[in-house]
Design goal:
four-stranded mixed β-sheet; 416 residues; alpha/beta
């Protein structure tokens, strides 16, 4: 500070030059739905309160697996190009060594304001590695107008019922002239999204969770094989063959164009479907995912905010991360975009409490099932890759469900 004052006094630098200098923070986010728009709004809100800071929002890939790959390249180089980033709920364990420990930057009360289960998920070896941004659980979207048209008074409760309803509605709409119409769209590409979808089929059929909390690799059981075998029959029947390359946005594109009876997707798709320019506005609703032999199972998702260990501005980066995952921003995100808050007192806000969408999500959240990211850390990314690539072979018809389950079990056990 004394050196800066001396330079100002002798005229080597000007006050205007000093005033123009800003702390720059790069903020990497995904590109699904309103990800970039919401992140930019949070950045603008922060910059308005902190005029000495410039937050640059960087739109990453839409595919979460590609985002992870980009981050790992950045970390390998120990690059400061990314200061703060949004990341999947399954990443805190695997990325722990590359992220700042937030305990020394946040008070116990600040940490206690968030969903305790997600805080526990984000804690690796006693260190908080990410701040919860929102909680996510998928649901089954369905066309209320088409269910009524074809004589159904309620959405399906089981996968078998969904298959039958999807086939009947698909056949009827195609006969009526819409050759592009399909019964059910979901996420069939070989990436983390398929891990979520397939886990739901298996868990809802009493087939376990791939790797159990005690470390037992359980995927090669009869119920899991049965669930995978059933799903392998969907592409080309109630789902288009192209579903084998679908992510969340590809599924939503078909759904929001009015060309599907059912869709498995996350809450973000609700607000987009109800937008003024949506052809399905007012024509759909959602419910919990169907079940097999067991109970409905919805993969617990959600995104967190991390601070890179390699940032050049750790103090300011954490300060921004806390704001971007704070009360004000999470309230904006749930009201305007439908993301469920992880900052728990937001639910009591009068503007949020009256939101029918948030209330309707309660029973769906209760059916949440966790991916085995904690028990397999720091190797979850590789375990998931083994799982989704093999499941993709099953649903593509390359191998049988029984063979796929056995191959996964062998590879995952070796990895563990």
């Amino acid at each position: 500070m004394r050196k800066l004052l001396l330079l100002l006094m002798v005229g080597l630098i000007s006050v205007s030059t000093f005033a123009a200098e800003k702390i720059e923070i790069s903020f990497l986010v995904g590109s699904t739905g309103h990800d970039v728009t919401a992140a930019q709004r949070a950045a603008d809100m922060y910059m308005e309160k902190n005029p000495n800071v410039k937050v640059k929002v960087i739109a990453g890939p839409k595919n979460t697996t590609d985002i992870l790959g980009l981050l790992l390249q950045n970390f390998e180089a120990k690059s400061a190009d990314i200061d703060v980033f949004n990341g999947d709920v399954i990443w805190p364990g695997d990325l722990s060594e590359h992220c700042l420990s937030l305990n020394k930057y946040m008070t116990k009360d600040e940490i206690a304001a968030y969903n305790p289960g997600v805080i526990l998920n984000n804690t690796s070896k006693g260190e908080l590695k990410a701040i919860p941004l929102f909680i996510d659980v998928p649901m089954l979207y369905y066309r209320t107008d088409l269910l009524k048209k074809y004589g159904y008074s309620n959405p399906p409760e089981t996968w078998k019922e969904m298959e039958e309803m999807a086939k009947k509605i698909q056949d009827g709409e195609r006969e009526a002239g819409n050759r592009d119409f399909c019964g059910f769209v979901w996420q069939g590409d070989a990436y983390e999204g398929l891990t979520c979808d397939a886990l739901e089929w298996i868990a809802s059929n009493d087939g376990g969770t791939i790797v159990e909390p005690d470390g037992k690799v359980s995927i090669a059981n009869a119920n899991a094989i049965e669930a995978l075998d059933s799903a392998s029959k969907w592409p080309g029947t109630i789902s288009p063959k192209g579903v084998l390359g679908f992510n969340e946005e590809a599924s939503r594109a078909v759904w929001q164009a009015g060309n599907a009876a059912f869709m498995r997707n996350w809450p973000y798709a609700y607000a987009l479907g109800e937008a003024d320019d949506s052809v399905i506005k007012g024509k759909f609703d959602f419910t919990t995912l169907p079940k097999g032999k067991g109970k409905s199972s919805c993969s617990i998702g959600g995104w967190e905010i991390f601070v890179s260990k390699y940032t050049d501005v750790p103090e300011e980066a954490v300060k921004f991360a806390k704001f971007a995952a704070g009360y004000e921003v999470q309230k904006m995100r749930v009201i305007d975009y439908g993301w469920l808050p992880a900052y728990m007192s937001v639910y009591d806000d009068p503007d949020v409490a009256k939101n029918a969408f948030v209330k309707q999500m309660g029973p769906i959240v209760a059916n949440g099932v966790a991916r085995p990211s904690t028990v397999t850390a720091p190797n979850y990314a590789e375990v998931s890759r083994i799982f989704f690539t093999t499941v993709h072979k099953v649903i593509s018809g390359e191998i049988s469900a029984k063979r796929g389950a056995k191959e996964m079990a062998v590879k995952i056990k070796k990895m563990m």
